[in-house]
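subagent[fold] <- orchestrator: predict structure for attached chain, return tokens only, no commentary.
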Amino acid sequence: MLIRERMEQMEKEELSPYATLDINSRGRDREEEQCDIRPLFQRDRDRILHCKSFRRLMNKTQVFLYPMGDHYRTRMSHTLEVSQNARTIGKALRLNEDLIEAIALGHDLGHTPFGHAGEDVLNRVTKEGFSHSEQSVRIVEKLEKDGAGLNLTWEVRDGIRNHQTEGHPHTPEGAVVRLSDKIAYIYADVDDAIRGEIIAEEDIPMEIRKTLGMNAKERLNTMIHDVIMSSLDAPDIRMSDEVLQAARDLRAFLFKNVYKNPKAKGEEVKAKRMIKMLFEYYNDNPDALPEKYVKAIGKGGDSQERIICDYIAGMTDSYCRTKFSEFFIPKAWEVDGY
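subagent[fold] -> orchestrator:
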């Protein structure tokens, strides 16, 4: 018996009856020979981990643009925190950790430079709209590996597509990642905001703190434990009503006091203008795109605007600034005989 087959047998014997087994996967769009060692979802996890879009996350904004310090979250560190939270929950519930990790590592691949600010701009400037969750799926299905995509299983792509609040994943593993994403950014954004002296711990309403915890560590612990205890031996992944309401109240507090705070978001106006100008420049001058993007226009029904979105969304913060400088900032010039 192959190592992969032994691992698949262990899943059948040890995982929850609600878990998604590798052997029950709907499979890939393109048939492939199976690995002799790794089950399907583990192989998907590895493909995401080694792709270029994943590596670029380390240089993309999570919430705070240009923070002065080394300890603020990036899109990469957020992704790793989501993965760890989700695996903790999944292990306790005896779900498929490989599927959970694959979804978690891939859920934000489609995020733009400068976080949601960049996403908002691209959604407004293109007639087709732009969503980072759909872009994440587009990356793994079509853009990675020079247009071949990663050929991931249906379950991983479903979890990536449905990780946002309004999403409805079709697997309990996808539902775990969806909740873990919320837990991660609620926990981390408060932590970063306190570090940046935008808020103080005491600013958080006492009713929220009584329910979730009096510090960041307690809040993370409360939310993860609550999901586990509320979902144990049940088909649905959920929080208790009390903890869910407190988490929603804390998120509302963050929107009012952090996400719209000029100290944290003062540079967003500039970032949005930069992305808008880049989009308009490429739309007027498509030949300025890299050659592979120029050739992609019109292929498979992809419009020029969609290809431009692909290119800009894939940029890191620093590369976006570099391209903006190249097109819009005058360069020094020399005169012979100076």
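orchestrator: received. Logging for downstream: The CA atoms of residues 142 and 149 lie 4 Å apart. The two ends are 78 Å apart (CA to CA).
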